Amino acid sequence: YNEKKFFAAFIMLIVTIFTACIAKQVPESTVNTQLQNSVDSIVKQGMEEFAAQEGMAIVMETSTGNLRAMVGWKEDNGKVVEDTTLLSKARETFLFRGASLLAVLETENVSLDDTFNTYTGIDVIGQDTIYDHNWRKGGYGELTLLQGLAYNSSIAIDKAVDVAYQDKDVFLQKLQQMGLEKDSTFKGSWSVYALGFHHRSPTSMVSFFNAIANGGKMVSPKMQEGSAIAVDSMIAKKKNIESMQKALRCFVTNGLGKKVESKMVNVAGISGSIHTEDGIYADFCGYFPAERPKYTVFVSYKRPETPASGGGMAGQTFRKIVEVMVKTMKQKDHRK
């Protein structure tokens, strides 16, 4: 009897040790369950409020690339079902104009203070006609490049790219050096490429803006704990990263992102809405705190028809997510 009891105890010990070893080999997930549940709820509330067909959000830790929350929901036969594949699905986004602006600054031929005429909000370039969002109201006229980004002026960004890059291939090479691979399926003009009329995944966009938040250092998004995986030491010159940080903050304080501003913490970011074959996407990507960023957050909704405002829809959800996170961090600091 004692031998059987000893043998059973020995087997239990071996199983315990083996299980512990296996547990050590399985990396811990980066996802914060409490935050994930909060973001889930906020995004689904937004879908109902904005009558959206899809809603998604990504929360990325700035310095490490750790993904703290990943939410994807879509409407399917009258029900809202989870679909995280939306986060890696490539599609058009106006957030890309932020990358075009950084590429422009890198040439040092154009600065944020340079002025561009956006006319009445309509500009014809070759076979393309570019419209600013307020063209029906007469456009913005003369804008500095800083104001051009703050007001989401497609014409100002496109003109800046045209001045900075005479050679399309050099522009595309610069984007690639900044961690943004060329869309091999795109066959349009480089003007509309600069504005985001080509396929780019949400994870690609959040990685790019996270690099700006991270002082220019791009890290790969990851779902398992561990050291940061650097994609590139610096995606751009330090002074140009600082100019982008200034521009993204200005978008919130003086531009179309005023609804995104929080009383709890300073934020920075950019919004955009774009018509695609699938529907209208309203996007916002930003980070906080603006002075010393800790997290980058991407939010997107898809609607079947207008109106669809990046700042008004995705931006407000961004603010709600940020404020939930700030409250949680303050509670943790208070307990310490």
What key phrases describe this protein's structure?
two-stranded antiparallel sheet; alpha+beta; 10 helices; globular; 336 residues
Topology diagram in text:
Elements: H1 2-25, H2 33-50, E1 54-61, E2 67-76, E3 79-82, H3 97-107, E4 115-117, E5 122-125, E6 128-131, E7 142-144, H4 145-150, H5 154-164, H6 168-177, H7 190-195, H8 202-213, E8 218-219, E9 230-232, H9 238-253, E10 268-275, E11 280-288, E12 295-303, H10 310-335
Antiparallel strand pairs: 1-2, 1-12, 2-3, 4-7, 5-6, 8-9, 10-11, 11-12
Helix pairs in contact: 2-10, 3-5, 3-9
Outline the structure in words.
- The chain is an alpha+beta fold and 336 residues long.
- The chain is 42% helix and 20% strand.
- The protein has 10 helices and 12 strands.
- The protein has helices spanning 2-25, 33-50, 97-107, 145-150, 154-164, 168-177, 190-195, 202-213, 238-253, 310-335, and strands at 54-61, 67-76, 79-82, 115-117, 122-125, 128-131, 142-144, 218-219, 230-232, 268-275, 280-288, 295-303.
- The strands form 4 sheets. A 6-stranded antiparallel beta sheet has the order 3-2-1-12-11-10, with helices on both faces.
Radius of gyration: 23 Å
**Overall strand count:** 12
Overall residue-averaged pLDDT value? 90
Largest sheet, spatial ordering of strands: 3-2-1-12-11-10
Which residues sit in consecutive blocks of at least 5 with pLDDT less than 50? Answer: 1-11
Give helix and strand order, one letter per element, not per position: HHEEEHEEEEHHHHHEEHEEEH
Beta strand %? 15-25%
* Spatial separation of the terminal alpha carbons: 52 Å
Give the helix proportion (percent range): 40-55%
Structural class: alpha+beta
Q: What count of helical segments does DSSP give?
A: 10
